[in-house]
Amino acid sequence: MNYGDLISEAFRITWRNKFLWFFGFFVSGGLGSSINVPSNLGGQQGLPFGSVSGPFRWISENLVLLLVIVGALVVVLALIFIVLAIISHGALAESVAALHRGEQRRFGLTWRAGTRYFWRVLGLKILFLLMALGLGLLIFLPAVLGALGVFAATESTGLRVLSVILGVLFVLAMLILVFLPFAIINQFALRELVVGGRRVMDSIGGSFGLFRRNIGRSLLAWLVQFGVMLGLGIAMVVVVIILGVILLGPAVALFAADQTTAAVVVGIVGGLLFLIPLFVISGAISAFNHSYWTLAYLQLTAPADRDAETAQGVR
User: Fold this and answer.
1) Which among 65, 42, 122, 56 is positioned nearest to 90, based on CA atoms?
2) Where do the domains of the chain lie?
3) Between vectors from CA 287 to CA 222 and to CA 273, what angle results, nearest 5°?
């Protein structure tokens, strides 16, 4: 694998096809900030006004109804986000592979590709979630039972502390040894399903086989991806801090000057303006990460594809 070409092509595809950033945002799971910020700001809306007893009295009298409405809204938003995330996984994998082949893709084609693979991607994600829960149980259960056995067998503080430390070290080591390959296999399985055109169970088996045949290159691909994403994450933090100072700093200064009404207004406007670049950057980085794994999958499977074509030609 040529990791330099892999990174540069992932950047090129992501930059030249900015519609991928929309799907990347939902893959990244960035909706949480868009839920929390408005609710936090909404809690300050009554502060500048003198007659707040009426609204607060109505809220206290209808608290159960408000909690039900808010809970239902959160559930609806979560379901919408999950649906869009599932669509985005299939859409990104299919479109990046098509762009790699030199085909044209636009938002509409990408969206339709995501909806076409929706149910299969959903089934795949559910199976991997169940496998992750099972693996987590197998890892945590022995550590917890071992610690409980030591606590029941002895009252020595030193032995109890030692059992806890050993248990934590065991869990951390097993999480790395088990879930690092599991995360890579999860990436491969999605591409086996969408790009390779396999069924759900076949894509899981194919991803295990692909990882087993390319353990070294797969782990190195993950390590390279980790380094690149770490650098992008640090750059994003710096940009977020700068944007926060520029857009939210005036509101803080107005609060310090006891200009509460103006501070709330400026804070709301600045917060909304702050969210826009935050979502865009999050979507772009996530789209790059998704493109990287699709291109890595294509590089790993390319030799097998060429061998199959050669064998077919010999026949």
Assistant:
1) 122
2) 3-21+33-303
3) 130
CA 214 to chain centre: 25
User: Which amino acid would we find at residue 126?
Assistant: I
Neighbours of 57 (CB within 10 A): 10
263 versus 222: the higher-pLDDT residue is 222
DSSP secondary structure of 125-175: HHHHHHHHHHHHHHHHHHHHHHHHHHHHH---HHHHHHHHHHHHHHHHHHH
Residue with tokens 């669509």: 87
pLDDT digit string, tens, across residues 34-63: 333 333 333 334 434 444 455 556 666 667
**Cα separation values, 62 from 52, 58, 89, 222, Å:** 16, 6, 41, 51
Place of tokens 């071992």: 146
pLDDT value for 137 = 93
Calpha distance 282→69 (Å, rounded)? 29
Nearest to 274 by CA among 309, 226, 241: 241
Radius of gyration of the chain from its Cα atoms, rounded to whole angstroms:
25
Q: How far apart are CA 165 and CA 168, in angstroms?
A: 5
Residue 303: band (very low, low, confident or very high) from pLDDT cuts 50, 70, 90? low
Residue of 187, 8, 25 whose CA lies nearest to 196: 187
User: What is the per-residue pLDDT for 222?
Assistant: 94
pLDDT tens across 8-29, in order? 999 999 999 999 999 999 987 5
Judged by DSSP in three states, 3 sits in helix
